[in-house]
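User: Assemble these into one structure.

Assistant: Restating your components, then the assembled model:
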Amino acid sequence: MKITQFKKMVALHGADVTRWDGADIDAVKALIRESEEARALYNEAQALDDALDRFKAGSVDLSVLDDVMVRIGGEPVPRSSFSEELKAARPGMIPDDVPAPEVIAARAAPRPMIWMTAAAFMAALVVSVVFFRGEGDISVQQAVVAEAPQMQEQETVLAQTDMPAEEVDRLMLEMGDMVDDELAAHEMIGLLAMAETEVPQQDVRQQDESVPQSEEDIDAFLDQLFDDAGTDPALQQEMDLWKLFLEGQTREL
Amino acid sequence: MKAEKALSIEDASDEDLMADIAGGDREAFRVLAERYMNLFYSVAFRMYPQRADAEDVVQEALLRLWSKAHLWKAGTGAAVSTWLYRLTYNLCVDQKRRNKHTVTDLDDDYVDPDAAADQRIQDKQTGAIVGKALQNLPERQRVALVLCHYQGLSNAEAADIMGTSVKGVEGLLVRARKALQAELKQYKGVL
């Protein structure tokens, strides 16, 4: 390549030799190595290209297209401009996978069927506690179990009755277990709430068709449960103990 | 069926999308608009480095794409991209005529957000200087430089968009680069 041709190309296209029409790149490199003038011109052109490249345009705000879609009578683009706005407002603070507003709203909305399933699960837990405890002689309906901080007070009230001390101790142990079970049940509800966001609602229903689905079903289920408790002699004994306990509390008040 | 259509429309050629847009297909418009709107913006911002002005140009270009798509003739050898560049170029010229004011303040879009902090500051300074130097160029020199250097178009494509000859574009490019070099040499560390 001659120096005159080199000067023309570098003045026209800058340092990007791929844009030099039909130029032999090896010949260009050889000329730059050999000619000081060519080298100086090439370095100047490269510096200008680098400076130009530092003037960046960035990206257009995607809401521009949303506005246009609305103006031409179409739907806004089905992507989360909400996420884009958040990222623009707080760069670096918002992850890329921020869900769309409608997704967030759907997650926040109550899901009655899921909670009915959870309620039914709780009812099943009560059944298992009432009917299937180890010894079966002493059992307490979990719904009336006192909170743990009140147990000392309950022990005092029970001690005022004619009940033998061993029986009081055993009853208190049972009640402690009940509190543990209740805490476990609360933990289970928490896990269900977490699972609710992960498992599609339809899948939950399909996995357990035996679980009561409507409010009426749950009411009937619980009525049946308490009716059965009335015919169980062990439960009847337990109910009598609780009646005694409540009477003691009433007297104290 | 709908998914199949969605997949195929995303992969459709520019020419097919233009034909669909001319027939009133909004989905085809959305796909082509997403494909080209950053290109519109890139040209407009380098012509007029105010974000609001550049976005006005993009919005108007998209509206014209929707309303004038039937004017693009398939099979004439004209690429859709060239037609869209010409649309944007004309809008930039119109914008200049409407807004007679001289642009002095530049927006910060010329800074690369991925760069390190000190590099970002340096890029911001250099970007501002280069942007201002570009503003000082005559309009056609600036357009030629934007189309060829920033958009990577050939001189022939730039000539087609600008409605001039290849020789004309070459003359504009040489003068533009020479003027920029002269101006930017005043700033220490830029060149």
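The longest helix of chain B spans residues 26-47.
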